[in-house]
Amino acid sequence: MTVTKPATKNTELQSRFIALWIRIGAKTDPNRVYERLERAYSGKERFYHNLSHLTACFAEFDIVKGMLDRPNAVEFALWFHDAVYDPRAKDNEENSVKMAMFAAGDRFGVEYGSMVCNLIMDTKHVAMPPTRDGTYMVDIDLAILGQPDAVYDEYARCIRAEYAWVPEEKYREGRANVLEGFLKRASLYTTKFFNARYGKQAHLNLRREISSLRRRGGVT
């Protein structure tokens, strides 16, 4: 494998990506792929879905990777799950899949490539993931919901900033509906581990934000 010398000193994230690239036996230059990802996650309108979100995801991943069936596949999928992010679009995950498969080239066989694609698609959060790894994937992505008040409130402000183009009243209604959808689930998190770790705080956070959104919107 030929590796170009990075233009700047490796960051912790870049070193992590290179280590994964070597573990999965990819032959292309990991620095070039990483730089493409870094540019994607550093977009000026990314207030939440950025490199900090990736870092937080990997902190959770490192805790549970021993519980996963294919940890390398999950970690690869995490790298790309928000690689394409446009809050105006409905096909971000589909386009993130395309970016992941392009980066992988012919490294993945049909089965492994399909696994990675499905893990990324699980983060649309529209249905229960069909695999064990998928359940951990979505819970890692939603771990932010169960963080302490101040961390959650900053997350909520960042999400609003990403949707700055949406009028206030429409945003309040839409955001409240999304959060209420999470609360209607039998369990907010799909794994026992994350439900025990974050479930209680997540419910408190969601109810608090919904109350604020409805109150400011004149709805009781």
Please describe what this structure looks like.
This protein has about 220 residues and is mainly α. About 65% of the residues lie in helices and about 0% in strands. The protein has helices at about 10-25, 30-40, 50-65, 70-80, 90-105, 110-120, 130-140, 150-160, 170-185, 190-215. α4 (about 70-80) packs across α6 (about 110-120), α6 (about 110-120) packs parallel to α7 and α9 (about 170-185) runs antiparallel to α10 (about 190-215).
Provide a compact summary of the structure:
The protein folds into 2 domains: 116 residues, no CATH class; 79 residues, no CATH class.
Number of strands: 0
Strand content: under 5%
Quickly give the structural class.
mainly alpha
Our count of domains comes out at 2
Tell the overall outline: globular
Please, how many helices?
A: 10
Ends apart, CA distance between termini? 61 Å
Mean pLDDT: 92
Oligomer: single chain
For the largest beta-sheet, the strand count, sense and barrel status come to: none
Q: What integer value in Å does the Rg equal?
A: 18 Å
Helical residue percent? 55-70%
